[in-house]
Amino acid sequence: MMKRLLFICVVALISAVLFGCTAARNSADPNANNSEDSTGSTEENNSEEGATITYWYWADNSEYSQLMQDIIKEFNETNDKGITVVGEEYPWDGGGYSETLFTAAIGGGGPDVASFKLTSTPLFTANDLLLNLDDYIANWDKKDDIDSNIYDIMKQASGTDSIYLMPWNTQVLYVYYRPSIFEEAGVEVPTTYEELLTAIEKTTMDTNGDGKTDVYGFGMRGATGGQEPWGSFIHARGGSFDDLTSEASIQGMKDFIDIYSNGYAPPTASTDGFNEIIANFKSGRTAMTIHHTGSSAEMVDTFGDDVSAFPFPAGEGQWTSMGDTENVIFESSQHKDAAFEWVAYLAAEKGQEDWTVATGNVPVSKSVQELDFFQDNEFMKASIEGMPFAGIVPIKDTTTEWISTIWPNTVAAALLGDKSAEEAMKILQEELHAE
């Protein structure tokens, strides 16, 4: 049981690294928690006509809170089955939302549907709390509107061949770059991994001839959270998180070390976190760095047209990190069909469009991705192009400690020459996959 509870910590950490959220509770109906009809859990009802379901969610700010209430209102007024969704907002609270949700569900008082993070999946499925969505999705007329890789990630999160999460919206990492620096260095946008390594080397420049590097090719993140962009280098050589000691994985680590040891990344890279890599890029100290659309507005504010993005290019393999917010239906819901109508509306219907356009998250619906709003945005396009090969760090009992301590300490030692690539990867493999 203690191991299962560790997954709550995983949620808090992984989400805080790239996708931290805060919000105040703002229930659509302050009396909803006291209504026996609101959960559909106190009375068996095989008919979904006129069903009322509760939906728990969090919002990053007051605008998103109102947005969700507007989406709920529109669904309630337009669905042809008379289904009523009662939305109840809870604060993210650094991942405490997931603990609140688990406590309520395990006690029999949870909602019908809830917004959810992939990292929580093993804890909830181990306690048989989530509805298996395989049959629902197989019979859904918009199943193919979502990339098959997204469904694979949902399965990976549960550690099974089944889907327990309905895709909703994502954040996909890509490579930011400065077109003016690329032009000065005489390089094109990389389309292969080898071209990326070359571009990193060539965009490391002494621009004023004083013998000192003014621009570093790559803004490397060596502190917590850096395991995600680092994973792209490992996979590009054909390696994976499953076997970090393979020859391919070790070669990817050697590439990463070489970028630092050759002076293609800032000297502080071994301890640089999110704030540092963004500040270095915005100041012109680095030509490239890796993040997602969450920082694109400030990049445009800083550089105007002199900033763009491309998906992390393929080598022997290809991978980029995906952050997420999904939805789940609880096994305890007495209105499962109605609940699926709601999560489908958020996944591939008007609710998907309304939410992703307003929040700037990357839609999972292919038809929504094709809207001009997304296709005319180069950062969204880079995210969408990365979706078919996006993935997540394995969700294990060891993941929290591995991300927060093992990975940054081990990689720092390797970058500084205190450990070889082979030694570092052996430690990372053993600690991540420890039983």
UniProtKB/TrEMBL annotation:
<dbReference type="InterPro" id="IPR006059">
    <property type="entry name" value="SBP"/>
</dbReference>
<protein>
    <submittedName>
        <fullName>Sugar ABC transporter substrate-binding protein</fullName>
    </submittedName>
</protein>
<keyword id="KW-0732">Signal</keyword>
<feature type="signal peptide">
    <location>
        <begin position="1"/>
        <end position="23"/>
    </location>
</feature>
<feature type="compositionally biased region" description="Low complexity">
    <location>
        <begin position="33"/>
        <end position="48"/>
    </location>
</feature>
<dbReference type="InterPro" id="IPR050490">
    <property type="entry name" value="Bact_solute-bd_prot1"/>
</dbReference>
<comment type="similarity">
    <text>Belongs to the bacterial solute-binding protein 1 family.</text>
</comment>
<dbReference type="Pfam" id="PF13416">
    <property type="entry name" value="SBP_bac_8"/>
</dbReference>
<feature type="region of interest" description="Disordered">
    <location>
        <begin position="28"/>
        <end position="48"/>
    </location>
</feature>
<keyword id="KW-0813">Transport</keyword>
